[in-house]
């Protein structure tokens, strides 16, 4: 079948994620056969229709690429930026265009997956898969056992109660937390809810996928089977 949803087509061309594709559509940046599109769920014929984003014609790529990166602080993970801040895409030197699977905020470092495989991205980021992400957290003040317990049980981060987490103390002001949610700046908000603030935040694993020996700012191409196996639910 040659018909697929427009946001999936844009993702499979390696231009951006499905979510970002919907945003381009909402802003009137996508055309089909020369006409501006305003329908996010539109089906297109990949053999006949010509799709452009920002005037650039898109072509589906046959080669999927999977990258793991140790994201450095000071870099954003969105592909569009109005303030000209450094972006993780600037670090990638491969000819295939990739985009981040999920996000890390500008002040957070650590493990980031990047790909041009739209189906893979959707699978990993969908909430129903409950893939745990593990973070190393350093806060400004000493954190008590009862506060760690609160984080473990769930806290209010502004109209939303977080799901149960797994927490392990490392030092007086340092701990590891595992969550399977992906709310915006979630761990920072969780710490603020118990009266503390994050000093340093690093993601050290996604599922069973680890940073290994990657230094901050480095990346490597990995095999799909390795990534898929590491992220598969037990």
Structure description:
The structure is a single chain. By secondary structure, this protein is an alpha+beta fold. It has 3 domains: 3-57, Roll (Structural Genomics Hypothetical 15.5 Kd Protein In mrcA-pckA Intergenic Region, Chain A); 66-127 and 209-231, 2-Layer Sandwich (Alpha-Beta Plaits), CATH 3.30.70; 132-206, Alpha-L RNA-binding motif (Alpha-Beta Plaits, 2-Layer Sandwich). It has 6 helices and 15 strands. The protein has helices spanning 6-12, 18-26, 118-125, 145-153, 186-193, 224-231; strands at 3-5, 30-32, 35-36, 43-45, 51-53, 56-57, 66-71, 99-100, 109-115, 133-139, 166-171, 174-179, 198-206, 209-210, 219-221. The strands form 3 sheets. Strands 7, 8, 9, 10, 11, 12, 13, 14 and 15 form a 9-stranded mixed beta sheet that branches. A 4-stranded antiparallel beta sheet has the order 3-2-5-6, with no helix packed on it. The longest helix is centred in the first third of the chain and has 9 residues, at 18-26. The model has no long low-confidence stretch (mean pLDDT 90).
Radius of gyration: 19 Å
Q: Biggest β-sheet, characterized?
A: 9 strands, mixed
Give the overall shape: elongated
Strand content: 25-35%
Give the name of the CATH superfamily of the largest domain.
Pseudouridine synthase I, catalytic domain, N-terminal subdomain
Question: Mind telling me which CATH architecture of the largest domain this is?
Answer: 2-Layer Sandwich
Distance between the termini: 33 Å
The class by helix and strand makeup works out as alpha+beta
Number of helices: 6
Q: Approximately how much helix is present in the residues?
A: 10-25%
The tally of structural domains comes to 3
* The level-1 CATH class of the largest domain: Alpha Beta
Roughly what is the average pLDDT, rounded to an integer? 90
**What string gives the helices and strands in order?**
EHHEEEEEEEEHEHEEHEEEH
Number-wise, the strands total 15
The low-pLDDT segments are none
């Amino acid at each position: 079948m040659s018909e697929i949803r427009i946001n999936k087509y844009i993702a499979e061309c390696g231009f951006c994620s499905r979510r970002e594709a919907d945003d381009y559509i909402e802003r009137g940046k996508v055309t089909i056969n020369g006409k501006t599109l305003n329908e996010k769920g539109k089906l297109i014929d990949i053999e006949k229709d010509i799709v452009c984003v920002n005037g650039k014609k898109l072509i589906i790529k046959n080669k999927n690429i999977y990258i793991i990166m140790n994201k450095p602080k000071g870099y954003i993970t969105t592909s569009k930026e109005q303030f000209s801040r450094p972006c993780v895409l600037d670090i990638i030197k491969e000819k295939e265009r990739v985009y981040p699977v999920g996000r890390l905020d500008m002040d957070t470092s650590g493990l980031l997956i990047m790909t041009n495989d739209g189906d893979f991205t959707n699978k990993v980021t969908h909430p129903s898969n409950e893939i745990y992400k593990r973070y190393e957290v350093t806060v400004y003040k000493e954190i008590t056992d009862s506060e760690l317990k609160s984080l473990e049980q769930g806290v209010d981060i502004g109209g939303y109660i977080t799901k149960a987490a797994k927490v392990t103390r490392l030092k007086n002001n340092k701990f590891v937390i595992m969550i399977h949610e992906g709310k915006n700046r979630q761990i920072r908000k969780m710490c603020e809810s118990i009266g503390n603030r994050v000093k340093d935040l690093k993601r050290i694993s996604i599922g069973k996928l680890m940073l290994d020996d990657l230094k901050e700012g480095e990346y490597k191409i990995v095999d799909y089977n390795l990534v898929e196996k590491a992220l598969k639910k037990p």
